[in-house]
Amino acid sequence: MAWWLSAAYVVAHGVALVLLPAHAQTLSYSFLIGAPLLAAAACVRRSLGSEAVVGWVALAVGMVLWAGGMAMNMYQEVGLGNADSTPGISMLLYVLYGVPLTFAMAHPRHAPWFLSVIDGAMALLLGYLFFVYTFSFVTITDASDAGVDSLRRMFDIENLFIAGFALLRWLASEDRSRRAFFGALSLFACVYLVVAAYINHFGSETSYGSLVDLLIDVPFLVLAVVAWRRSPVRPVEVSRRLALGVRAGSPLILAISLLVMSALLVRAHPMLAVAGFAFATLGSGLRSVLMQVRSLEQQDRLDVLARVDGLTGVANRRQFDQVLQAEWNRSRRSGQGIALLMVDIDHFKVFNDRYGHPLGDACLRAVAAALAGCATRATDVVARYGGEEFAVVLPAASREGVLALAETMRIAVERLRLNSPASVCQIGVTISIGVAQLDKVTTAAPGELVAATDAALYEAKRQGRNRVVEGQVAAGLDEDLDR
């Protein structure tokens, strides 16, 4: 339906020119202004609820700028009756229409606010350089033939630049919403490139109001239709290397544009050109530094997530294994002892079945917090060993200190009270603890220590739970003491 309506728009444009030749110029301008405004409206509509909202809004701004350029042409030719000159402000708006499109291609997905500020500042400076460069050839009310020719070449370069980079972003887009946006931008940019090249180089001698104007409608109506229709985007296999390369390099688009415009202004405005070079370099450098800092912060967060149990907030099994081996090696070198506690929540499976998994999770979190609150030394590590079982690594700890800490942990958990929505009474929980301690480490692996601690935990549960039992590592024998 949308394609038929766009075709009807072109037909209506042509019919108006044929049936009302006396008003052809005014009517044609109206259609030529209306087409990009329709495209802008479609882009704004598409931006609602889209993850590519920045791109669609930027594209809409570009369409409004282009319509503004055509409106200034209409004012000069129809309002002032001067068909022999092209207003400089019109040429400026035609040039500036590419700035928000360039911003959209350079702006990365889910960019933090500070990167958006840098990109926005670079885009504004790019627009100002376009302004200065444009008025190097034209005045606010007139443009010489030589100036228009120079700007035509600039339009060709700009249009080719936008089409090329839009296609590259489309080919490298993995996200469906971004792929849909860059697909629409690529289609528009390619059609506009062809139409603009023909109009600027072969149809420029024809005044507005002829049937050639119908061609100008086409790219904007194509964009309006594509933006309006929310056609499903098929998943496409994209080279990961290409996607990452384009994503990393796309922010350079603005910097490259600034460098090119600065180079064009070197002779006429050397100080401004130097400022452009400096801003492009510093902006790109600052952007890279901030991105690197953000990447390092994300890496730190991922590292923490890889070492911490997501439910309880204490170290996970992987971190426990690494810490135990590291402390074991350190104790072996230094001659200091090491101790290990194995902690099991008593009757946890029955607890889970009776009170439900949400309260079971709350129980795990509460026990983990109680254990961590007792292990106050910086070197002590509390970890979730698996299920309802925890482990505590205690480097350089005496036998008396270890047994005292284990008893403190048992009492701390015994005093816990959990609120259950299914019971008016608060629910208590207890733990059993197995303890093993070595004054001197002689072997390369802590397997014997783990085995002795696990055996002590088993004995604590066998004796009735809610107690501390010490296991002996030497000769593989356990000497059990109730605490």
Automatic annotation (TrEMBL):
Cofactor names: Mg(2+)
Any GO molecular function: diguanylate cyclase activity
UniProt-listed Gene3D superfamilies: 3.30.70.270
Transmembrane regions: 56-75, 87-106, 113-135, 155-172, 179-199, 211-228, 248-266, 272-290
PANTHER family assigned to the protein according to its UniProt record, in alphabetical order: DIGUANYLATE CYCLASE DGCM-RELATED, REGULATORY COMPONENTS OF SENSORY TRANSDUCTION SYSTEM
Biological process per Gene Ontology, one example term: negative regulation of bacterial-type flagellum-dependent cell motility
InterPro entries tied to this protein: Diguanylate_Cyclase, GGDEF_dom, Nucleotide_cyclase, Rev_trsase/Diguanyl_cyclase
One Pfam family from the record: GGDEF
Keywords (A to Z) from UniProt: Membrane, Transmembrane, Transmembrane helix
CC terms in the record's Gene Ontology section: plasma membrane
Entry EC number(s): 2.7.7.65
Name of the protein described by the UniProt record: diguanylate cyclase
Catalysis: reaction(s): 2 GTP = 3',3'-c-di-GMP + 2 diphosphate
Domain GGDEF span(s) in chain numbering: 336-473
